[in-house]
Amino acid sequence: MTHVTIVGGGPGGYEAALVASRLGAEVTLIERDGIGGSTVLTDCVPSKTLIATSDLLTEVSSAAELGVQVPTSVRADLATVDARVLRLAQAQSTDIAHRLAASNVVMIAGTATIESAGTVVVETADGQQRVDTDAILVATGAHPRVSPDAQPDGERILTWEQVYALQELPEHMIVVGSGVTGAEFASAYNGLGAAVTLVSSRDRVLPGEDVDAANVIEDVFTRRGMTVMGNSRMASVERTDDGVLVTLTDGRTVSGSHCLLALGSIPNTEGLGLEALGMVLDDHGFIKVDRVSRTSVRGIYAAGDCTGVLMLASVAAQQGRIAMSHLLGDAVHPLDLGKVSSNVFTSPEIATVGMSQKQVEESDLQIDMAMLPLASNARAKMQGVHDGFVKIFSRRGMGVVVGGVVVGPKASELIHALSIAVSASLTVDQVADAFTVYPSMSGSVAEAARRLHPLV
Ligand SMILES: Cc1cc2nc3c(=O)[nH]c(=O)nc-3n(C[C@H](O)[C@H](O)[C@H](O)COP(=O)(O)OP(=O)(O)OC[C@H]3O[C@@H](n4cnc5c(N)ncnc54)[C@H](O)[C@@H]3O)c2cc1C
User: Fold this and answer.
1) Whole-angstrom Cα distance, residue 288 to residue 306?
2) Ligand 1 binding pocket mutation candidate from 6, 19, 43, 185 (most atoms within 8 A of CB)
3) N or C: which end of the chain has fewer CB within 10 A?
4) What is the pLDDT of residue 107?
5) What would the mean pLDDT of 381-397 be, rounded to a whole number?
6) Are 138 and 113 in contact (CB under 8 A)?
């Protein structure tokens, strides 16, 4: 029986543990903070739970358009919201631990270092433990980047891991960083009723996303009263008597009650002993892996944020599963980033799959594009949805779907049809011919596909 030792209990680690156990391996999983990892305890699950409350309030705020009068004082009680967030995260962690236990995965609570490809040393509350193993998966994740001139204090200057300790809604939240995490939190606190300033070093929010989608979000943000400061690079953040002061590199200042730093992530690869093993890391400390999650050291695999391949829970989980299939001799499908679907949980959401507009523009392939505003969709009108669109990219000729973008409420659900199309290389005709419910938002997906029907 092969013995696999997994370091890190996030999706990169726990999904791998479940697959390895199913494939007949003896599995040990070492986790220092809590099963489920940052995904479940501090990042993905808590932020999406907070956003669920914010989305509800955003919907309520448009109730009058649908003929419902609501009191103007509808507000979230942040202490209750945050308590729910933390309770739910803990419950999810417990669920995963039960699944692992039921799959006979041995869990050790402690901090691991890797002595060799065959030995992991764990510092536990009861002392040191050595684990001899046949193979190792490193899935240690990442942590928030902070700057020496913007030190979080957990009260007013916060990382995304610290916001759930807030007992009252911030009067004025300054979010520094307009990538996915910054935009999601800015959207969430705006929806919850806080004044929000979003400080972006780039000329627009969400610089890594589809330009049309980012423009919709920036437009919605400003319409809902958020201050979006483009081309504004943070130099420092400091505490004042009653809040925070953010100073920009050009000398301007912004004051608020709280500041959330969303400056990106740093891989948890220091202190693991990887350099001593000769493992190849990149300049930022991410572990270099191939498409089946092998590192440069024989017998050691890596998955998830510590590899920096694509920092998503879904990708981490897939890398972990692939690693175990490769190690244990099961059929392996190497990681294909061209088929990943992802979502920005702003309000409205942005969901994407496959080739992006930027990749289309840089590609030698002949690609057609159709873009349909949701405002023309009957269901959207009924629901008072004004913002958003469906965009599809297809190969000229056969009309094979190669990518798509959906902006709208629940875009994360709507993208699935396009995700199946990209994954199975369906044509626009096949997408258009599948019945959609009338009236439905998904009708716009079929209609956009119909507009790409190849003409002979
Ligand atoms: C605010 C936020 C929201 C996000 N939302 C989404 C989302 O909606 N959807 C999505 O797909 N992705 C989302 N992500 C990204 C997602 O959270 C990460 O991609 C995911 O956590 C990566 O999983 P992982 O297994 O690599 O690492 P993690 O989930 O970080 O788990 C790694 C674990 O390893 C443990 N560890 C580290 N070093 C050691 C050691 N030496 N010994 C023992 N244990 C160790 C850590 O304690 C940690 O628990 C979000 C990220 C952030 C910051």
Assistant:
1) 9
2) 43
3) C
4) 98
5) 97
6) no
